[in-house]
Amino acid sequence: MRQIEDTKTAELPGMPTAKRRGRPPLGERAMTAAERQRASRKARFQAGLKNMSLTTPVQFNAMVDIATREKLKRLATEEGLTMGQLLDRLIEQL
């Protein structure tokens, strides 16, 4: 075994090489944080499709008036909910 910085010494055949530290990458390189998050969202979504009893969070964007947003925010705070949870409850009441 030789030091990593040593570029002149040859490795001896049959000698164990040092293993890389950390979790082995899935491809040629480690995934970035964005790639891990994307994979996590995809897996969570797929799990929700297989088991409909699970809630599968999805992103929901809507343009509303500032007064409407403030009302939703105030109601959510009063109820101890997130705005997404409040919207889920309001839609279930329809």
TrEMBL record:
Annotated region described as Disordered, given as residue ranges: 1-28
Protein name according to UniProt: LexA regulated protein
Organism: Iodobacter ciconiae
